[in-house]
Every structure is written in structure tokens, then in C-alpha cells.
Amino acid sequence: MGKITLKSPHEIELMRESGKIVSAVLRLLEHNIRPGISTMELDAIANDFILSQGGISVFKGYSKGGRGRFPASICTSIDDVVVHGIPSPRRLREGEMISVDVGVMKDGFVGDGAWTFRVSQVSEEKERLMHITHESLFVGLKEARMNKNVHDISSAIQDFVEAHGYSVVRDLVGHGVGRTLHEEPPVPNFGKPGGGPKLRPGMTIAVEPMVNAGTYKVYTDDDGWSVRTYDGYPSAHYEHTIAITDGEPDILTL
């Protein structure tokens, strides 16, 4: 594992400014998500707003692991797409759910957050999946305290999710965040208590449960980015960027 970078109070305040833009984008998109709008239109709305606030998308042009550069400002992942869905002319349909992931850099620091939205009315099954995934994020955050370990967060999320009959994705994890989108340490959504690095004040991490209605297994689509559930069942995704303090975690993307 590489070096974990602790942030100063000033740097955390800069991250909070980026986090505010992230949360504002998600609120703005919530008001625009409806049957008939395309994910490409949502991407344009998000990018215009991010630029208007003095930020830039850290997703646009991002490249990792030999893949091409990500072509859009946000990730839009519909139903069985877990994460990294590419915005396109495809229009949303009633009854779908869409996970939107937003990463913003402003003044050299990154905020990263995600939310899953319903497109008009969704089935009871999807409603329950969204609810449990959202709850699991805050179950994990309760463990994000000084002198706990990273995998205390992971274990709490896994136990909660599996107790409700769902599965957590293993191939993708949360992560440290700060001057870049992905820093040390990795923050899995599965694991045993007491594992991973010790949590210390000044650590900034993105906690992001990715929860599948069926199997935890996933695969990457032919577009090289979209990660889909292996069995075609839906998946939900919620994410906050937080700073570890000497008390409750400080949520920077509220």
C-alpha cells in the first residue's frame, strides 16, 4: 500500500468547497431526472453547473488501467449498470433507476459523491434496494472514527447489506481522495473488523457502497467502462467524501 496523505484543516475546507459543488450537482440533476430526458442532457446540465461554480469534472478525460479516456463529466448508471455508465443519447424510461456519480476539482482538491435516483415511479423491489444501500452508507460512516480501522467500515456495510439479502460488489471499492480522485487507502465494502489501516484525523476517504440485488459478480461492458451485474439484476450506489476527525466523521459532500 502507498502512503496515506493526511490533510490540514485548510485543505479539508478546500475539499468541502468541491464537495458542496458535488452535492449541488446531484440536487440539480434530481430535479431534471424524468422519463424522456437523455443521460447526455443530464451530463451537459452537470458540466455547465460545475464550470459555473469554478470547478472542473475530474471524470472527463480520466484514464486508468489501459482504458481509453472517460468521455463525459458524470457517470450515469441505469438499472443493472453498477458504476461508470457513459452518458449517451439514450433516454430514461419510467420505472428505471439511475445512479449518478460526480467528481469535482476546485482549487486543487477533489470532492466525490454519488446518489441513486428513481425515474418517476419504481417497483417496490428497486425502492427497497435503494433504501438499504443508502442506509448501508450511514451504517459504514458510524465506524469512520479515529482509532478504528478502514475494514471496520467495510465489515459494517457488508454485514448490513447481506442481512437484508443483497450483495456488495467485490471488484470495486471506495478510496482515499484529496489532491487526486484516487488516493490511498482503498475502502472496500466487505472485510473483517480490525483490518486495513488505522483511521486518523486528517484522512479523507470516499465511502461508496455498491449493492446488487443478486450476485456480487460483475463484468465490464464492451464500451470499456460500464460495469454491469453478472446476472442482470439492478444495482444501487451511494457515496460521500468524508474527513476523519477526533469525533464524528465530517461529511464533505452533504
Describe how the helices and strands are arranged.
Layout: H1 9-32, H2 39-52, E1 56-57, E2 74-78, E3 81-83, E4 97-106, E5 109-118, H3 124-141, H4 150-163, E6 167-168, E7 174-176, E8 183-187, E9 204-207, E10 210-212, E11 218-220, E12 227-229, E13 235-237, E14 240-243, E15 250-251
Antiparallel strand pairs: 1-4, 2-4, 3-12, 4-5, 6-10, 7-8, 7-9, 9-14, 10-13, 11-12, 14-15
Q: Would you kindly provide a brief summary of this structure?
A:
This protein has 254 residues and is an alpha+beta fold. The protein has helices spanning 9-32, 39-52, 124-141, 150-163; strands at 56-57, 74-78, 81-83, 97-106, 109-118, 167-168, 174-176, 183-187, 204-207, 210-212, 218-220, 227-229, 235-237, 240-243, 250-251.
Overall description:
The chain has about 250 residues and is α+β, with helices and mostly antiparallel strands. It has a single domain (about 10-250), classed as Creatinase/methionine aminopeptidase superfamily (Creatine Amidinohydrolase), CATH 3.90.230.10. Helices cover about 30% and strands about 25% of the residues. It has four helices and 15 strands. Strands 8-7-9-14-15 form a five-stranded antiparallel β-sheet. Strands 1, 2, 4 and 5 form a four-stranded antiparallel β-sheet that branches. Strands 3-12-11 form a three-stranded antiparallel β-sheet, with no helix packed on it. Strand 11 (about 220) and strand 12 (about 225-230) form a beta hairpin. The radius of gyration is 17 Å and the shape is globular. The protein starts with 8 loop residues before the first helix and ends with a strand. The mean pLDDT is about 95.
